[in-house]
């Protein structure tokens, strides 16, 4: 595993809602510069884990963000891409409007800031989406919208990027581009990535570590270690794993 300048630790996280325990005793240690894939069947608690890290649902346990250089703790800056986002079909907002408003925290409909426009276009280019900058958001395909959301999540240079099934609706070439880009971003921006994915072939190729979740952690380690584990084989069956 790559060791960046920071690390994120989740200690004994448990989420209980309506008297039901959704996840319990989850521990995760991920260094910036690496990708952790969270896998598991539907209902395993994967999205709840993401929501807890974001602070959207109450939990017990602790999330720590630590600077490995001076051993101090800092505020964790998180980028997030949801699985789905409902966009009003009548919204006049362009991709520039959407990202610029998110970036500045203020309405930007009256004029375009040329410097910010260039910055947004350069960030869209990372996801091969620079041609979308003036398109209306409501007219984007699912794959195009996901690339825009990835740009929004990455533009503020987060320490941790949370991706909840980010390649839904994206074709195979698009998935290849997505995983190549995420790998590049994690390795070159001291960025930790937690990725929920059902695409086990891509997980095997791109993830540095894997966590198999079914309410609690059933197995964790490298893709090879997890895919060869008894817990994985009970969940998904025996499969060959080729790591790159």
Helix content: 25-40%
Order of helices and strands: EEEHEEHHHEHEHEEHH
What's the story with the biggest beta sheet?
6 strands, mixed
End-to-end Cα distance: 13 Å
**Segments where pLDDT lies below 50 for 5+ residues?**
none
Radius of gyration: 18 Å
Number of helices: 8
Oligomer category: single chain
| Order of strands across the main sheet | 5-6-7-3-8-9
**What form results from the Cα inertia axes?**
globular
| β-sheet strand percentage | 25-35%
SSE class: alpha/beta
Mean pLDDT: 83
> How many individual β-strands?
9
Structure description:
With 244 residues, this protein is α/β, with parallel strands linked by helices. Helix content is 33%, strand content 26%. The chain has eight helices and nine strands. α3 crosses α4. It is globular.
Keywords:
alpha/beta; 244 residues; three-stranded antiparallel β-sheet; six-stranded mixed β-sheet; 8 helices; globular
Question: What is the fold's blueprint, element by element?
Answer:
Elements: E1 6-17, E2 20-31, E3 35-39, H1 46-54, E4 60-67, E5 78-81, H2 95-104, H3 114-126, H4 142-154, E6 160-164, H5 172-188, E7 192-196, H6 200-206, E8 209-214, E9 216-221, H7 223-227, H8 230-236
Helix pairs in contact: 3-4
